[in-house]
From TrEMBL:
<dbReference type="InterPro" id="IPR036257">
    <property type="entry name" value="Cyt_c_oxidase_su2_TM_sf"/>
</dbReference>
<comment type="similarity">
    <text>Belongs to the cytochrome c oxidase subunit 2 family.</text>
</comment>
<dbReference type="InterPro" id="IPR008972">
    <property type="entry name" value="Cupredoxin"/>
</dbReference>
<dbReference type="Pfam" id="PF00116">
    <property type="entry name" value="COX2"/>
</dbReference>
<keyword id="KW-0732">Signal</keyword>
<keyword id="KW-0813">Transport</keyword>
<dbReference type="GO" id="GO:0016491">
    <property type="term" value="F:oxidoreductase activity"/>
</dbReference>
<keyword id="KW-0560">Oxidoreductase</keyword>
<protein>
    <submittedName>
        <fullName>Cytochrome o ubiquinol oxidase subunit II</fullName>
        <ecNumber>1.10.3.-</ecNumber>
    </submittedName>
</protein>
<dbReference type="GO" id="GO:0005886">
    <property type="term" value="C:plasma membrane"/>
</dbReference>
<keyword id="KW-0249">Electron transport</keyword>
<keyword id="KW-0812">Transmembrane</keyword>
<dbReference type="InterPro" id="IPR011759">
    <property type="entry name" value="Cyt_c_oxidase_su2_TM_dom"/>
</dbReference>
<keyword id="KW-0472">Membrane</keyword>
<dbReference type="GO" id="GO:0005507">
    <property type="term" value="F:copper ion binding"/>
</dbReference>
<dbReference type="InterPro" id="IPR045187">
    <property type="entry name" value="CcO_II"/>
</dbReference>
<dbReference type="GO" id="GO:0042773">
    <property type="term" value="P:ATP synthesis coupled electron transport"/>
</dbReference>
Length: 334
């Protein structure tokens, strides 16, 4: 087979796929499970991240669009059939040099300035966009410890002496500071409309921060593949008023189960919360977060039992509904 025949064969193979190119944006919408949440920020951190993303895209378009037009113009102007003028004695042009060097220098300087400001504006360890004048009842940030397990999220409120599973509740208009760790593999903590994605790692402590402008419910989830229960590793983020937060604390404090370290060890065993039903614990043990981190550093693990993945494989072959509708399924597995 000649090279021309091979080229024609490849062209026929890829021709059907080219017809699907206009559908690419529609396919990407499935990644969010709904609207483009990153384009609908509800807090200063998410808003700043979107603004800097827009700056990057605009600058990129400022470079790519003129360059593409210039290339097309050169192809049209100097095509063979036009018999364009040929200048073998051309050596240089000051105007051309100024354009070729001046524009990149200005663009890089602008991006460097934006990147410098953006780095500090949304720095998870102390974002500048969260700096605000002290106001009564809001001057002190709410501190929450976040623990990612296989495959649930545990939120510990040290000052309020309560904890919740797969439900994060924060008051509107108040800064929130997170300490995060994992008992299993590296994962990512992400609430698209409120804060940026950040790694959550076993045996380590990372930080994040956010503030919600108004009340509402937003979705948070694990943004890094972490095994069989990854699709169900989501949590509701409820932003409530001052009274609503106090009510949440009273409700969680009335939970019969206290969150001792022994209780946590049972909780951290691989579990898939299929219906994503929240649970609550009262009286978390003092320094529980630090003990969890130290245990991971010392080699503490929570192996996934083979029966769990084997049961999921049987359900998949049987066409279980929870594979098609993770958020609407019922029942738990562990």
């Amino acid at each position: 087979m000649s090279l021309c025949d091979e080229a024609r064969l490849k062209e026929r193979r890829f021709r059907p796929w080219r017809r699907l190119a206009p559908l690419t944006p529609l396919l990407l919408t499935g990644c969010s499970g709904g609207p483009f949440r990153v384009f609908d920020p509800k807090g200063p951190v998410a808003r700043a991240s979107l603004n800097f993303t827009i700056i990057d895209v605009v600058v990129m378009a400022f470079i790519i669009v003129p360059t593409a037009c210039f290339i097309l113009w050169c192809i049209w102007r100097y095509r063979r059939s036009r018999a364009a003028a040929y200048s073998p004695g051309f050596s240089h042009s000051l105007k051309l040099e100024a354009v070729m060097w001046g524009i990149p220098i200005v663009v890089v300087a602008g991006l460097a300035y934006a990147s410098y400001n953006g780095t500090f504006a949304v720095d998870p360890y102390g974002p500048h966009v969260l700096r605000m004048p002290a106001r009564a009842g809001r001057s002190h940030p709410l501190k929450i410890d976040v623990v990612a397990t296989d495959w649930q999220w545990l939120f510990i409120y040290p000052k309020q002496h309560v904890a919740s599973v797969d439900r994060l509740v924060v008051p509107a208009g108040r800064n929130v500071e997170f300490r995060l760790t994992s008992t299993s593999v590296v994962n990512d903590f992400f609430i698209p409309q409120l804060t940026d994605m950040i790694d959550v790692m076993p045996g380590m402590r990372t930080k994040d921060a956010m503030r919600a402008n108004g009340q509402g419910r937003y979705e948070g989830f694990a943004a890094n593949f972490s095994g069989a229960g990854f699709s169900w590793m989501r949590f509701a983020t409820d932003v409530v008023g001052k009274r609503g937060f106090a009510k949440f604390v009273r409700h969680a404090a009335a939970a019969p189960a206290a969150l001792t370290y022994a209780t946590f060890e049972r909780f951290a065993r691989p579990t898939i919360n299929l219906d994503q039903r929240p649970r609550y614990f009262s009286a978390p043990a003092p320094h529980l977060f630090r003990r969890i981190v130290e245990a991971s550093r010392n080699g503490k693990t929570y192996p996934v039992p083979p029966r769990l993945t084997e049961a999921m494989a049987r359900d998949l072959r049987a066409g279980a509904s929870y594979f098609s509708h993770p958020a609407a399924s019922r029942g738990t597995s562990g």
